[in-house]
Amino acid sequence: MSLFPLLHKLDGKPLIAKQILELIDEENKMIRFNVIEGDLLKEYKYFVGTYQVIPKDEEKCFVKWIFEYEKLHPGVPEPTALMDAVVRLAKEIDDHHHSQAK
Fold it and tell me: Which domain holds residue 56?
């Protein structure tokens, strides 16, 4: 188990979270983080992120992102802005790796 802070911008605002790295599954290429403090817990009772890399072939992989959460009340929005930020991050990582391959 590992504890570390996350600082990221979401919609131009700082998003701060303290997470525990709960799982590293090398065989299934999976990691899971549990948010234990921070901005996300102002709207959600709990928030867990799981990331799994799934090889497609020798050169390509898929990444599956799973967010598990429970809203504090019905007025809390779905975490779509966070999902959009994850997609942007994935694109930046992909662009970086493709620029390195040239």
Answer: 2-101
